[in-house]
Amino acid sequence: MYDAYESDEYFFNNDAVFLIENKDREKLINLTFEKHKNEILENISPITKRNDLLVWNVLLAREVITNGTSKQYLHTLYNKFYKQIQETSKLPSLQKIELDMINSYFDILINYLELKDNLVINKIIGYLYYHIEDKVTLENIATDLKLSVGYISNTFKKNIGITIMKYFKQVKIDRAKVLLVTTDKSVLEISTLLCFCDQGNFSKTFKAIVGMTPLEYRNSSSLK
Predict the structure, then answer these.
(1) Which domain covers residue 37, as residue numbers?
(2) Which of 8, 142, 145, 196 is such that its CA lies 20 to 30 A from the CA of 122?
(3) PANTHER family in the record, alphabetically (predicted)?
(4) Whole-prediction pTM
């Protein structure tokens, strides 16, 4: 099967599998940049690229499950990328989807907190990661998890030490940090993607958590 996807010579090999298994986002992103340059030089067709990404959507989702994280809500993330891939017909846009896909799955692989003795916390954190690009309220979480607002709030604060909404802001800012150094999205685009009310609120929250503005963080990074 792998031989059918010539454009993925960088990924269908042991090096890529090793990077995913070891959760090495930085090297995998760098490998992806190299891959994209070659795809442009070789002028690969969008159809071939779509096929590549459909395969990698499956493989990355499987890796999340293999690492023991919750399967709950995984179908939402998988279906989101499946739909985007099928509806996109230009190579640059497909390449952007690929970077977003890597970042989204790696967020879960790297940051998902597994508290085996507290299933409620597992469900809340899983919910937050799978809805990282959405506006979420305590009522949303409680309704979807079929629990009361008071119960999830008290349980989370007791076990994690901060409120659910504060934790969710940190999750969003962690994603923003990655987007700032792995994509060319503007600060406004990132703030909109992560559902902050406006760019000013996003920048203020970012600086409060990271200690510098989004642009300062981007300029100080050497990931690229």
Answers:
(1) 2-111
(2) 196
(3) ARAC-FAMILY TRANSCRIPTIONAL REGULATOR, HTH-TYPE TRANSCRIPTIONAL ACTIVATOR RHAS
(4) 0.70
